[in-house]
Write a structure and sequence with these properties.
mainly alpha, elongated
Length: 125
């Protein structure tokens, strides 16, 4: 079974109950690792677009990671709003949404910024 840390309506597990399970802790990725992973993906995808569009891929990744970090820090889950749980899948959804764009729809850097703003609003709202 998988379980997050106690809080936001999740109960505390006693040691007597935990002894029946194997506990595995996974540390979150460092910001540099996330940046490298998603920058590589975006550079590969944006490589077929004009230079103005492909040039801002690194900045989009940095902005997405900064937004993700601030949302995860400020929007903590509570019993009333338990849907405030953010993970790597959210960054991936933004990048995948941008990846669905076709060449005719991304003619300029402004078009890419509009697409990014739409995806961030869709994922983090």
């Amino acid at each position: 079974a998988a379980m997050g840390p106690p809080g936001a309506g999740r109960p505390y597990l006693t040691g007597r109950y935990q002894r029946h399970y194997s506990l595995i802790f996974v540390t979150p990725f460092a910001t540099e690792s996330l940046s490298r992973i998603f920058t590589t993906i975006m550079q590969w995808f944006l490589g077929r677009f004009p230079g103005a569009v492909s040039g801002i891929g690194t900045n989009l990744v940095k902005a997405t990671i900064e937004l993700y970090d601030s949302m995860a820090a400020e929007m903590r889950p509570t019993p009333a709003k338990s849907h405030y749980t953010f993970n790597l899948r959210d960054i991936s959804k933004v990048m995948n949404g941008i990846g669905l764009c076709q060449k005719p729809s991304l003619q300029s850097a402004d078009d890419l910024m509009k697409c990014w703003a739409h995806e961030v609003n869709r994922v983090f709202k």
